């Protein structure tokens, strides 16, 4: 009788363990990152440097091997993320977070903000997001919030309606899909 109860308890524990482990399988995401729009906010900030509009965009991301983010030391000469290509042209992979402001015109269309110098932009770099993987390829999912400051009135004018186009790259230079944020109005 005691043997039967022990056998039944052991079987129950084994089946429970198998059920729990099957629930903990790694997600199967593509190795190319994908993003979706989550939120956008803006606030007017005044500090010792002046008055500016701080815009924070949050995207949700998924990546199958978790190779998202760069460190500044990754951007050394000769790396795929160096500032300049061997022919001394700007490397498009120097940044991994790409943002383009889209301004609504009088006709209601959103057009890319034109900057005086085409090399000026709001692109930037986000740090590695796979800090706990110890170099292992691990699927990642989460939210990435990024803040950009625009000096008040230049180039975004008070009262203008703007939205942003965003995409990211992973360390293998795979480009995510492009998302467009909800519109916001620049404070007056």
SSE layout and pairings?
Layout (H helix, E strand, L loop, with lengths): L1 H22 L10 E14 L2 E14 L33 E8 L5 E3 L27 E12 L9 E8 L10 E2 L3 E2 L3
Antiparallel strand pairs: 1-2, 2-5, 3-4, 3-6, 6-7, 6-8
Quick overview of this protein structure:
The protein is mainly beta. 12% of the residues lie in helices and 34% in strands. It has one helix at 2-23, and strands at residues 34-47, 50-63, 97-104, 110-112, 140-151, 161-168, 179-180, 184-185.
Biggest sheet character: 5 strands, antiparallel
Instruction: Report the average pLDDT across residues.
Output: 84
Q: Note the beta-strand portion.
A: 25-35%
Class inferred from helices and paired strands: mainly beta
What order do the helices and strands follow? HEEEEEEEE
Radius of gyration in whole Å, from Cα? 23 Å
First-to-last CA distance: 81 Å
Total helix count? 1
Number of strands: 8
- The parts where pLDDT drops under 50 for at least 5 residues are 3-7, 9-22
Helical proportion, percent range? 10-25%
Overall 3D shape: globular
The count of domains is 1
Keywords: Signal
Protein name: Lipoprotein
Signal peptide: 1-21
């Amino acid at each position: 009788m005691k043997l039967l109860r022990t056998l039944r308890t052991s079987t129950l524990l084994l089946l429970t363990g198998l059920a729990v482990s099957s629930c903990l399988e790694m997600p199967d995401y593509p190795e190319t990152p994908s993003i979706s729009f989550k939120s956008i906010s803006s606030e007017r900030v005044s500090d010792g440097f002046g008055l500016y509009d701080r815009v924070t965009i949050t995207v949700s991301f998924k990546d199958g091997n978790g190779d998202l983010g760069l460190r500044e030391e990754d951007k050394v000469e000769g790396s795929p993320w160096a500032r300049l290509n061997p022919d001394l042209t700007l490397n498009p992979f120097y940044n991994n977070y790409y943002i383009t402001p889209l301004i609504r015109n009088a006709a209601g269309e959103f057009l890319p903000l034109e900057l005086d110098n085409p090399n000026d932009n709001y692109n930037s770099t986000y740090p590695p997001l796979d800090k706990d993987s110890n170099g292992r390829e691990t699927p990642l999912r989460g939210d990435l919030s990024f803040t950009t400051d625009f000096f008040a009135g230049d180039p975004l004018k008070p009262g203008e309606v703007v939205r942003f186009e965003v995409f990211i790259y992973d360390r293998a230079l795979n480009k995510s899909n492009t998302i467009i944020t909800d519109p916001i109005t620049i404070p007056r």
